[in-house]
Amino acid sequence: MPLHLNIKADILSKIKSGVYKENEIIPSEMDLAEEYKVSRPTIRQAIQGLVNEGYLERKKRKGTIVIRKKIPQEFTNILQSYNNEIKGKGLEPKTKVISCKLEEASNEVCDKLNLKEGESVYKIVRLRYAGDDPVVFVITYIKADILPEFLKHNFTKESIYNVLSSYNFPIISITRYLEVMKADESTSVLLDIEMGDPIFRFISIGHTYNRNPIEYSIAKYRGDLNSFVIEIDNSKNV
To answer: Which of 23, 106, 174, 231 places its Cα 20 to 30 Å from the Cα of 66?
Structure first.
């Protein structure tokens, strides 16, 4: 194995074991070159590999700092449940249901789900975790008239998408809108971050057969724990 990969693996081991702690500056390239008895370019390669993978961050006039590795979310490319995605990253997904009720749809929800004024929706408010860290706060609205027994399900353990599929209303396509904003007071408390910290806000409209909108969700993701993978395939046009 090339020297820089051996050194990269050793530094990563020290990060994971807590020798180099989160928000701590690791030794300089010169000190590391002396420690490992290699050239500075070799150290630079090892460090850059860990920067690229999200374990380290270079700070001007400070040095290289250990950062919390972000969760690469891929739901922007594929349709899958939160639980399956988090499990796929080797983490333990957990869900806390804050509220789950039937209510009259607001004008905003009526517009997104093509409902008439006065029609009802199910409103499910959840806080979702990866391990012990709260990752995303999400409010979901589901059309109620076609799903009379929807609230009988336990959304602490069951996926909304799986439940919809069980009623023969699978999510076939999703339209998503993304914006970056600052956490307000309530969001900061729920996601265990500082007020004003950056968050990713996704608005999603899930469609079942014939582009019929059935789900409308507003999800707020922690900016310090999440990154998003967006893949564009242009092969059909080449």
So the answer is: 231
